[in-house]
Amino acid sequence: MNEINSSPQREKWCGHEFLFKFRGFWFTQIYLEATKRVVETFKPLPGDVILASFPKTGTTWLKALLHSIIHPSPCHANHPLTLNHPHQLIPSLETDLYIEKWREVGGIGSTRTPQFPVVKDPEKARILSTHLPYQILGDILDSSDCKIVYVTRNPKDTLVSLWHFMQKSSVVEKDEWEMEVAVDQFCRGVVPFGPYYDHVLAYRQERFNRPEKVYFLTYEELKENPKFHVRKLGEFLGCPFDQSENGEEKIDEIVKMCSFETLSSQQVNKSNELPNVFPLPYSAFFRKGEVGDHKNYLEHKMITKIDGVTREKFHACGYMYGI
Ligand code: PAP
Predict the structure, then answer these.
(1) Would you write out the chain's pLDDT as a tens digit for each of its 323 residues?
(2) Does some domain include residue 307?
(3) How far apart are CA 99 and CA 131, in angstroms?
(4) Is residue 77 part of a domain?
C-alpha cells in the first residue's frame, strides 16, 4: 500500500475532530483527502501567484492586498472588495478547489473538477492560496515558474486567533477546547497544517534559496509598514507602482481598502452566511486584527511554554522571531 492510501497516524483534536498525519503534518480528514488530491493532480501555471500561509497568520488580509495589486480597481461602491469576501476572490487549493463541499462530507473520495479562476487578461496572474506546507507542496511549486508569497505571524497571536476561530465553529461546543489544551497541541505541532514552526521555516528557507520567486513577510511587519510592503509586492509581482505622487496615491488607496477597519465594516464581511466551502461564517475571518492580543488570553506559564518552543525551533537556527 502506498503512502497516499495507507492509514495515517491520528490524534484527537477538538470537539469530535481527529487530526491525521501525512508527510509529517496534521490534517482534519476532509482536508487530508483534499491535500492528497492536490498532491496527485495540481499543476501550477508558470505565471501563477501562490499565497501560502499557516492558518490565522494574515491570509485574508494578503488575499485582499494581492487581488488589489494585481487587479487594481478605483475605490467605488462596486469595488470587488466591497462585494466579495477576500476568500471569494482568491480560492484555496485544499480548502476550496480540491475539497468536496463541507456540506457533502459524506462524499469524500469522489472527485469533482476544480473550478480554477479564469483570468481573461493574459498579462494578469492567477492567484491561488494554500495552507499546505512547503514540505508537501514544494516539488509541485518548484516544477513551475510560479511565484510564492508567504505570510507568517507571531506564534502566540496565531494560536490565540485559531482558538477564537474554532470557538465560532460547530466543531467546538462552547468552552470545549480549553486554552491550555490548545497551547499543548500547538507546541506539539498537532493543529491543522501544523507543526507551525516547520511550516514557517521551510518557506523561509525557500526565500533564501529563490528570493526572486518567494516573498516572505510577517503580519507584524505588514502592520508596521503596509505601504512599504504593497510597493515591494508590486515590484515582486511584476506590476510595480511608479514613484510619482500618482503611484503613492494608488498604494494609499490599496492600504486603506484592505485595512482591517475598512474590510471588517463591509456588509459581505459582517455576514453570518456560510461560505460554500467552510463551516464558519464570513464574519469569523475578522476578529480584532491586532498585534500582541495573546497577552489578553494566555497565562504566564502558557507564554513561557510557547516561547520555549520558539527558542528551540526558531532562535536555535538563527531566526530571531516570535517572542
Ligand atoms: P485563515 O487562515 O483562516 O484565512 P487568516 O486570515 O490567516 O485566517 O487570519 C485571521 C486573522 O487575521 C484574524 O486575526 P485575529 O483573530 O487576531 O483578529 C483576523 O482578525 C485578521 N485579519 C483579517 N483581515 C485583516 C486585515 N485586513 N488586517 C489585519 N488583520 C486582519
Answers:
(1) 566 666 789 999 998 889 999 999 999 998 999 999 999 999 999 999 999 999 999 999 999 999 999 998 876 778 899 999 999 999 999 998 998 754 454 444 445 677 888 877 777 889 999 999 999 999 999 999 999 999 999 999 999 999 999 998 877 776 689 999 999 999 999 999 999 999 999 999 999 999 999 999 999 999 999 999 999 999 999 999 999 889 999 999 999 999 999 999 999 999 887 766 667 888 999 999 999 999 999 999 999 999 999 999 999 999 999 99
(2) yes
(3) 13
(4) yes
Task: State whether the beta carbon of 288 lies less than 6 angstroms from ligand 1.
Answer: yes
Which of 56, 102, 218 has most ligand 1 atoms within 8 Å of its beta carbon, as the pocket-test mutant?
56
pTM for the model: 0.94
Phi first, then psi: what are they for 5, rounded to 5°? -100, -10
Cβ–ligand 1 contact at 58 (below 6 Å): yes
Q: Which residues contact 235 (CB under 8 A, 6 or more apart)?
A: none
- Report CA(127)–ligand 1 centroid distance (Å): 19
How many domains does one find in the chain? 1
CA of 130: how far to CAs of 3, 60, 161, 193, in Å?
Answer: 21, 12, 18, 10
CATH number at residue 86: 3.40.50.300
- Whole-number Å distance, alpha carbon 161 to ligand 1 midpoint, is 8
Select from 286, 295, 296 the residue to mutate for testing ligand 1; criterion: most ligand atoms less than 8 Å from CB.
286
For ligand 1, whether the C-beta of 91 sits within 6 Å is no
Largest interatomic CA distance in the chain: 61
